[in-house]
Amino acid sequence: MLRTSSLALYVLALTASSAAFADGSWVNIASTDGNAAGLSNIPGVPSDAVWVPNQFNNPLIGPTGIVTFRGQLFGTGIQATAPNNSHIFVSGSTGGAGLSQIARAGNALPSNLAPGLICNSTTGTNGLGSTHFEAGNGGILITGNLNGTGVTSTTSPFWMWRDSTGTSNYILYRGGDVFNGLTMSASAGSPQYVNNDGNALVFSSFTGTGVVTTGTAANNGGVMWMGPTGKSMVIRKGDAAPGFTDGTVFQPDSFGLQVNGNGVVLSGKLAAASGITTSNDTVYMTNAWGGSLQIFARKGGVIPGYPDLTFTNLAFPTTAPVTFAARPLMNDGTIVFRSNLGGAGATAGVNDIATFAIKNGTCTMWMRKGDSVPGVSDAVFSSTGSSSQMNNNGMYAFEGVLCNADGTSIANDPVTGLPVVGASFVGVRKANGTVQVIARQFDAVPGIAGATFSALSGSSSLNISDAGIVVFSNNYVTAGSNNNPAVFAWDATLGLRVIAKPGDTNFTGTPANQFTQLGGTAVTGSGVGSALNAKGQLVIRAGDTVSQIYTIAKIDLGPAACPADLTGNRVVDGADLAALLGAWGACSGSCPADLTGNGVVDGADLAALLGAWGNCPN
């Protein structure tokens, strides 16, 4: 069975061979089965090239289903080791099917962006980072290193932006770039988010005239935008702290930056000659409520709207009073976070953790340790787990942890060592404030006889689409095995179901036993996810570690695309009209353009397509 192919070759093959779900069918983008088909037509790739097993990195999916990933190849002129075998590919980048190459290690960057240099590190190894970033409009940011005459380890890092059209490329940053007379330094993998305009938010260190490295006068770093049209400073270390007029300055952190469009969330510490201690030095600020930076949370400070509660440290990191949900800044400016609670209104170990949403300075508590959990009679809510995510329609998906009513951990069975009741769960908080448990540890797994869920905290790679589709990965337990990886989906209409599980053969042609999907690390700077896009299209990496075959596959979990959407981009437009006219006449075999099902593509089908013109219903 042909498994490594361009997307076009799968349209017919997978209709018959893919496992069909209520959601749709998995479509393979590429598989490492040693078959060169589908690669020989890509410019710059040798005709005998084959995929290297187990070397697919971080597949992301754009708003129309385009998938970006890094893969390694072997073939004529491609070295078996790192210097030129890594490539970043994108599917369907020219409006059709197939793979296109964005960048290749050991080669020059596209558009002559760095003349005379190649994409390798100064030690001659692969220069393409395994982490890339995709914006909500399909633009792509890749990071890596360059090598060539005059390049040093300092000037080697680069970030390249490929815009949403796929036709324009820009260098956003080169190591050693100068901004306002200051020499910048940021690592190749530093950007956390990139917005639709190609602007990446990053912390950079500075050297040069006037740079101070110690004390309250330190100014040797700053948070910056770096984009196709240039660089700008958001806030520099040593700048006056927003809201202070007494000489207190701000020292931004080099981590934890958040982006949605031009809105940012960032953290750091206050510094002053006096009055600042380790109990009140950490602050969080945003510009999402009017354009100017303002502090919305301060360690030891009163929580807005809750005068008897204060922000205090979480157990990890020990100095941080706030931790964020993945994609915490929403389109409307709402910021979702979790904090430990201090003050007269909190009792340690009983009700001292809560999840909040804050907008325009107004804070709302969503859930708190000690709260009852709907459908759970033998335990109360303890806290959210390490994975949670918000959509733009007010629904929050999270991993929950349960405890006894007195705040103590749930006891373990003395024989099995397992909790007596499910100590963790996946749940959603809906826009109306109601909480629903969708999967609980030790519950039966739907559709798999004799299987129960393993612990659901800390390993779920949780995603949620704007349509309210939740996807998570987790192991399940059966009588014969305790670590069976599977991927699950839930929505209010179809409920909980398994969409990929061990033994499925539709991915590799052999029994798959490995599934990887990105969660919080696959978010964009445009308010949507990029492992599960806003419309509910999901991309994962599946594999059979026994046969060493690995696949990148996608599925549409959203509402069925309208039949007239022949190109699958969830909008009926000129491309669909061209596809219909190209199929005009009597049908032979599969005939998607025959919208009326009468065996011929004719005026009736044209009328049906024109009647469906525009965005498909969500």
Report on the architecture of this protein.
With 618 residues, this protein is mainly beta. It has a domain of 55 residues: Dockerin domain (Type 1 dockerin domain, Orthogonal Bundle), CATH 1.10.1330. Helices cover 5% and strands 39% of the residues. The chain has three helices and 45 strands. The strands form eleven sheets. Strands 23, 24, 25, 26, 27 and 28 form a six-stranded antiparallel beta sheet that branches. A hairpin with a 5-residue loop joins strand 9 and strand 10. Helix 2 packs antiparallel against helix 3. The N terminus is likely disordered.
Outline the fold blueprint.
Blueprint: H1 7-17, E1 20-21, E2 24-25, E3 27-31, E4 50-51, E5 57-61, E6 67-74, E7 86-91, E8 99-104, E9 133-134, E10 140-145, E11 157-162, E12 169-174, E13 178-179, E14 182-185, E15 200-207, E16 221-227, E17 230-236, E18 249-252, E19 258-260, E20 263-271, E21 282-286, E22 294-298, E23 302-303, E24 306-312, E25 322-329, E26 335-342, E27 353-359, E28 362-368, E29 372-373, E30 376-390, E31 396-403, E32 424-429, E33 435-440, E34 452-453, E35 463-464, E36 470-477, E37 484-491, E38 495-500, E39 514-516, E40 537-544, E41 549-556, E42 571-572, H2 574-582, E43 585-586, E44 600-601, H3 603-611, E45 614-615
Antiparallel strand pairs: 1-2, 3-41, 4-6, 5-6, 6-7, 7-8, 9-10, 10-11, 11-12, 13-14, 14-15, 15-16, 16-17, 18-20, 19-20, 20-21, 21-22, 23-24, 24-26, 25-26, 26-27, 27-28, 29-30, 30-31, 31-32, 32-33, 34-36, 35-36, 36-37, 37-38, 39-40, 40-41, 42-45, 43-44
Helix pairs in contact: 2-3
